[in-house]
Amino acid sequence: MEPPLLALDDVHSGYNHHTIVHQISFHINPGDICSLLGPSGCGKTTTLRAIAGFESVSQGSIKLADTLLSSPKKSIPPEQRKIGMVFQDYALFPHLTVAKNIAFGLPKQASKAATIETLLKLVNLTGYEERYPHELSGGQQQRVALARALAPAPKLLLMDEPFSNLDVDLRRRLSEEVREILKSQGISAILVTHDQEEAFSFSDKVGVMKDGKLLQWDTPYNLYHEPRSHFVANFIGQGHFIRGNAISPESVATELGELTGNRSYNWVVGTPIEVLLRPDDVIEAPDSPIKAEVVQKVFKGAMTHYHLRLPTGSIVESLIPSHHNYEVGEQIGIKVEADHLVAFSSPTDGNKPSVPL
Predict the structure, then answer these.
(1) pLDDT tens per residue, range 67-98
(2) Does residue 214 sit in the same domain as residue 314?
(3) Is residue 5 scored above 60 in pLDDT?
(4) CATH number of the domain enclosing 284
(5) Which pLDDT value is given to residue 347?
(6) Distance between CA atoms of 100 and 97, rounded to whole angstroms?
(7) Dihedral through CA 178, CA 182, CA 187, CA 193, nearest 10?
(8) Does residue 354 form part of some domain?
(9) Are residues 71 and 210 in the same domain?
(10) Beta strands 257-260; 342-345: pairing state
């Protein structure tokens, strides 16, 4: 079995004797593209900076392949780690041309011109060698920053919210292009972002962080469908929790009827339960006795995204084909169709996840 490219083991890190991240452990394999995702201040950038060598490690270790990069007793300088970095503000030298910006990190060698030519072609900027950063668009500047980071052939690329200064459409297109470039070159990368759509579309694995801790490191699919904590379930995707009570290891009685999953949980009958319902779990059912009031609607072409208020005041969301057009204030018949339940013990019961047996 191939060893991981990068491994963090019980990492504690921060600055000015103040620990920001605690007990961070994960690994990435060669060729993996990953993201650290979470709200502002959760510690994702501190984790990235610790990997890069800009922050010290007070406990645990960081290894790149077989090389120990950081521990309480050892720290390899950032420039010796064979790790590339792409920053939010691009960090290009304004007085240097595109070619010279890319060449900045290269050793003095005869093949430098050939390397620059190859990288320009890779990032689709052939012919821009003699332009200066101020003569480029934001997306072009970010491509130059990527080419410069790739120039020394790093083993790992770190990206700190590199697309956040771009408009939405360009951001999406560029993130797709960068992923294709990295995959084509077999380069592993870690992206820091607070945008879950970006993290999901960009990454093979995503780590969700909160208050300096890594809550779950998993595939985008598993984070959405198999969240391990109430926070991850609520943070990832869209949806709302409704309350109920366990009536069997597989079922919960709720105001939307008895909801049954495809597995057994470790809850006791009668336990207060919260069930997460995504918009795709709540479907239109005109003949259903359960009605909900339209409180908000967003037209999305083939589908309309409805926010619906249940008789108890609880809110759920639903995606309904747009040829059925309901107005705000109108009642809709609904039912739940969920392959499995994303359910947790209610906060009054310790807010502990209900684990499938």
Answers:
(1) 999 999 999 999 999 999 998 887 899 999 99
(2) no
(3) yes
(4) 2.40.50.140
(5) 63
(6) 5
(7) 30
(8) no
(9) yes
(10) unpaired
Of 165, 169, 187, residue with least CA distance to 178: 187
The chain-wide mean pLDDT, for the chain, equals 90
pLDDT digits (tens, 9 = 90+) for 300-339: 999 999 999 999 999 999 999 998 899 999 999 999 998 7
pTM of the model: 0.87
Could you tell me where the DSSP H helices lie in the chain?
44-52, 98-103, 112-122, 138-150, 168-185, 196-202, 220-225, 230-235
CB 164 within 8 A of CB 170: no
Query: Quick one: 127 and 185 in the same domain?
Result: yes
Closest CA to 295 of 279, 284, 306, 283: 306
Q: How far apart are CA 170 and CA 181, in angstroms?
A: 16
Is residue 355 a part of any domain in this protein? no
SS3 57: strand
CATH code of the domain in which 115 resides: 3.40.50.300
Q: How many domains does the chain fold into?
A: 2
Q: How far apart are CA 28 and CA 34, in angstroms?
A: 8
Domain extent at residue 71: 6-230
Is 104 in the same domain as 249? Answer: no
Are 225 and 333 in a shared domain?
Answer: no
State the residue for tokens 């985008």: 220
3-state SS class at 102: helix
Q: Provide the residue count of the chain.
A: 357
